[in-house]
Amino acid sequence: MYKKILMAADGSDNSLRAAKEAVKLASLSKGSEVTIVYVIDHNEAQSEEIHRGTSMEVEIARQKKIEPIIDMFESEEIFYKKEMIYGIPSHVISEYANDRNFDILIMGKRGLNPMQEMVLGSVSRSVLNKVDIPVLIVK
């Protein structure tokens, strides 16, 4: 089954639903390990620091975004580790997944409107096309 699970988190509702699925899968195999990766987009990081204040305040805000996800794993007593990485989300998630021996990647599908998706693309779609492992995209 799935022993090493990578879960991409961004704090969105879809990310929370993806975390629920990660908890379910991890519960099926004794000794499963989940790595929760939260990618801090460079452009978003600069904007956050300008609007929110000190880097400590920004860090606390980021932690709060994924706190409900962490709580899910802790309440179910599932072993997890958390990684916060700077970069372009689709690139970082893809590289992280491909450079380590994960069995599956679980992530939420972001709800972009058709115009945004056409111009910017979708992180989940980009990751799906770049990774070498099975991917579960949760709506």
TrEMBL record:
This is Universal stress protein. Belongs to the universal stress protein A family. It comes from the Bacteria. It comes from Metaplanococcus flavidus. CDD domains: USP-like (cd00293). InterPro entries: Rossmann-like_a/b/a_fold, Universal_stress_UspA, UspA. PANTHER family: STRESS RESPONSE PROTEIN NHAX, UNIVERSAL STRESS PROTEIN UP12. It holds the Pfam family Usp. Residues 1-139 form the UspA domain. Signal peptide: none annotated.
